[in-house]
Amino acid sequence: MGAAGLSTGGPSAGARPLRRPFPPSRATSTGTTSTSSTTSSFQAAPASRRRERVRLRSLVFEGRDWGVDRQVVSARASYTHAADAWQSSSYNEKCSLLMAEMVEAAELRQWDRVRGLLVKAAKDIDSYLDEDPIAVGSDVSFKTYASQGRSKLEDLLRDVEAIPALPKPLLVMFARRLVVGGSCSSDAHLMHCLQILRWLRASTIQRQAEMVATAKDYTRIVNALLKKSKTLKARDVNPYEQRAYECWRDMRKVCGVAKLDGAAVRAGMNACATARRTVEALEVFEGASSASSSAAGIAGSDATVCYNILIKGFGLVGDLEGLEAVLSRMEAGAVRKTESTYNTLVNAFVSLDRVDRAWQAMQEALASGSAGEESKQYMYATVLKGIVRRMNPNLKGMTQALDLMNRMKALGVVPDVYVYSQLIDHLIKKRNDVDAADRLFQQMQRQEFGAVEPNVVVYNMLLRGLCNQNSGLSKNGAGWSKVRCLELLKDMGSRGIKPNTSTFNTLISAAVSNDDQRSANKLFKLMVDLKVDPDRMTFTTIMKSFSDQRRPEECARIFEELDAWAFGGADKIAFNCLLGAHGKAGDLQQAEEVYNRMLKRGIQPDSVTFNSMVRACCALKDPRRAALFVSRACGRGIRIAPSLYDVTIKMCVAAEEFADCKSMLRSMRQLGVEGTDLAEQFVEERRVASTKKGQNLAVERVKFWVGLPNSYYNTDEDWR
């Protein structure tokens, strides 16, 4: 059979049966077709002519008309047989050369060469597309995927598909290698997989589509998209959920339900449920359950996972009746509820605003022993989320606390210390209502509300709120409520609850932040007396206290204790505290020694480090060293406080250190510091004025010595 019997593979080829091509030598030996004679004549052409022809073709693929036979008629890719014209995409030089070489090899029927080019391109497809991997795999790219009907990868696949006489197995091989060539954990590759699947829907190899992407490939892509959907907090539409559902529909169409295994069914159900198509997920589950002999048959743990997906789906769409039906079906089938089942069930009931049912489900999980510690915390937090959702935003303080108590009673929730700790934490962090949290702390200990004894965790939460947020209990309505905090500390002692490291860190940090050094010292002494082990935060907080008091010796003593600590030496924060202490005390030499010690330890300085060094140099009126540290910060790509730039520039100008100032300004310009142009103009003007002033001074001095009239001793001149 001659070469004329080969399938073209182009857009006008239709669905003609594919036959294996003969090698070039065999095709030319027949001498029965015009194609073979053309091939022979081309093979006989000089190598320089072939290279020139490839170069001209590559220019065509770059999207420019160079007067060759095949000219560009639009920006869309694909070969048009009727017009005999390439509609080329904006390829880079590497991709353009690839396309030209493949066309050349296809005309010569050198299919091994074409295969080698395709394999090479598939291994490093990003370099041929010349795309930014961050932009391709961003949330925006997944969101705009549906509205963009094309991409560079799809254009490349269309161009390869449109090469005349290209055998379909080569096209299938190329697309297949692109699908499996990367990891779906890579966002860029995940987007490329979606683009390949979209191209596949309208390609000429739809009958071989399953050879490009199998059911396992589809399952892998769907699961990767669903995993990505959890990382995106979308208020309107989650693009990953939409793309996962589209992939599921493609998998169902290409592979058929009968060929899907349990993993594919679960992935499809999950895609339907997250896309708020729970009824379709139920249909998939019922179809798979009835498939007794197929790979999709569901039993055992797989059935439990499928029921969990249905519970989640009905919770998302707000269908309580459907959720009840799923639970009844589980009981009828004696399906065991797992830890994941209870977590999903509690979340679904809270979504349906049935906190009472969520509380019952949680109690059932705790009674059956199905909930671990992590699962218990999750269920508690979910139930409390449903409780606080009903809170009246107009209530404050005591009224808010009583409202919470009454709502829990009405819902049948019997609060324990964990419930109260979560509610107190929510009132402080989310509602910024420390008074309500304190009132709730007092009410929880009353008999009518359960007489729940607080633990050290509850005390620490309340102390953090009283120390760090506005409170009506404080004298000025802001800062830390010192009296109330000390009362809670005494209350802990009377109850036999020993404060821990977090307790003292909170109180000492609040005292230091409010310039109450005396209280900070007393609290630290109490911490030592109670034999509470300090941590890094304790040491650095005390160091900050001594630094504010201009006591660098004490700060250095604490630093050495931390550096000799059994749990690790001093870190960057400790070095910055010590460096700042020496800087505030005006000891620049010691500050530089700490800086050099920090570098020898392998700890990289940050903006706090350079702020302290530049501030210390400015305080000692040392413009050259200040400019040096500014330049070092710029060299490391670190920006310091904007005010320090201005102070250093003015100090250099006043000391007429123009060379150091200009060197510093060059570093600032390289870093992109705003206002550098104005600063350079200011420095240049001052330098010119200083030069003229020096010249005038020299002239007046000469006039004075030769006895001519002069103004050398004129008191109005500032140069005296």
Task: Provide a descriptive summary of the structure in words.
The chain has 720 residues and is mainly alpha-helical. Helices cover 66% and strands 1% of the residues. It is built from 37 helices and 2 strands. It has helices at 24-30, 34-43, 47-61, 93-107, 111-123, 125-129, 133-136, 139-143, 152-161, 168-180, 187-201, 209-212, 215-229, 239-255, 262-274, 278-290, 301-317, 320-332, 339-351, 355-368, 373-389, 397-410, 417-429, 434-443, 456-468, 482-494, 501-513, 517-529, 536-548, 552-563, 572-584, 588-600, 607-619, 623-635, 642-654, 658-671, 676-706; strands spanning 78-80, 85-87. Strands 1-2 form a two-stranded antiparallel sheet. Strand 1 and strand 2 form a beta hairpin.
Set out the fold topology.
Layout: H1 24-30, H2 34-43, H3 47-61, E1 78-80, E2 85-87, H4 93-107, H5 111-123, H6 125-129, H7 133-136, H8 139-143, H9 152-161, H10 168-180, H11 187-201, H12 209-212, H13 215-229, H14 239-255, H15 262-274, H16 278-290, H17 301-317, H18 320-332, H19 339-351, H20 355-368, H21 373-389, H22 397-410, H23 417-429, H24 434-443, H25 456-468, H26 482-494, H27 501-513, H28 517-529, H29 536-548, H30 552-563, H31 572-584, H32 588-600, H33 607-619, H34 623-635, H35 642-654, H36 658-671, H37 676-706
Antiparallel strand pairs: 1-2
Helix pairs in contact: 1-2, 3-4, 4-5, 5-10, 9-11, 13-14, 13-15, 14-15, 15-16, 15-17, 16-17, 17-18, 17-19, 19-20, 19-21, 20-21, 21-23, 22-24, 23-24, 23-25, 24-25, 25-26, 25-27, 27-28, 27-29, 29-30, 29-31, 30-31, 31-32, 31-33, 32-33, 33-34, 33-35, 34-35, 34-36, 36-37
